[in-house]
Amino acid sequence: MFSALARVFKTPDLRRKIWFTIGIITIYRIGAFVPAPGVDYGAVQQCLELGTTEGGVYSFVNMFSGGAMLQVSVFALGIMPYITAAIIVQLLRVVIPRFENLQREGAQGQAKLTQYTRYLTIGLATLNATTLVATARSGALLGCDIPIIPDDSLWVIVLMILVMTSGVALIMWLGEQITERGVGNGMSILIFVSIAAGFPGAMGEIWTVQGWRTFAIVMLIGLVTITAVVFVEQSQRRVPVQYAKRQVGRRTVGGTSTYIPIKVNMAGVIPVIFSSSVLMLPSVYLQFNQPAPGEEPGWFSNLVQTYFSGGTHPVYMAVFFLLTIGFTYFYVTITFNPNEVAENMRKYGGFIPGIRAGRPTEGYLAYVISRITFPGSLYLGFIALIPLIAFVLIGANQNFPFGGTSILIMVGVGLTTVKQINAQMEQRNYEGLLR
Fold it and tell me: Which sequence ranges are marked TM in the entry (predicted)?
């Protein structure tokens, strides 16, 4: 491993890109701890020490901000507005034909979609910043009676919203700089860093509070989970495709064999994010609709409090599991179009051996996608439940480090980044990073 790292840093161009990426990451992590204007940093730290936010409805979003959200910093919103905007733009391709046409136009159309994503990100960031400031002002964010915004005048509130929105724009720019001048996809790298930043604290808390036995069990679960995730993420069904020979001018082209790689987990981490967000809504509703003193809570409040507040009830786990499966099928359906793939194959003279071109090919691809999505959806469902099951069995923190969204993102980004580094080394040397 050390010899591989030495080979990486011996390549001047690659070394320069890696150091540039590390520099951007350092700036991003510093911004996560710079308090927004008007925020009493000492009061925030007192509320965090009380542990009133443990397992709260904001823990999921806080994970994607690297802990910056509960610090109420200038980067409090993190990368989440961009993730949401990117998902919305991708889903709108199914509804708006203009977006679908832009996707087919190649690099120029993709640049236009990226611009739309940026605009939508700023809009969502403004909305999220307003909500975050309102919850911080009321004390609902940290669940603490200590005021963290001493001066809640209109000017201070507007300034906080502008600074947090500008923080999201700066994060977008930092991510794009990593993509253009660094290593890997910038946004993915920043998400990876945000999640990884919480691992030392979570593992240290498990060691301190629950002892070395629980710590050893958690590490074992982590190794097994990472191994399973790497195995499934690398697994794919290869559908063979042959291209017939055809005459183009005086040249004969075609006659080659290739395959369509269909991953077991084509949806990535998106279904887990969808499911977590949907199940977060009842708790958010309950938090902002508390019954008046002396008033009995309604049936919906009782339902949420009983089954959906702690996240460890069997009903909650079952709904989470089923939602993940459903969203997996939904997302794969809108991102992989068998009709489009079959049409492109027919246009260039390609066919699947034993399957006629056209509609039979479309039906066969839809059949393969349906069959392979089923184990992929079960895999996502089980991975998403790991932190909840660990909380019940070993009493680990609800923000269990090894499981769910965190491991899926970290392993996926890690594998992709290593492959990119390996490809860049092979361009300059006969030997790459991976032997």
Answer: 18-36, 68-95, 116-134, 154-175, 187-208, 214-232, 315-336, 377-394, 400-418
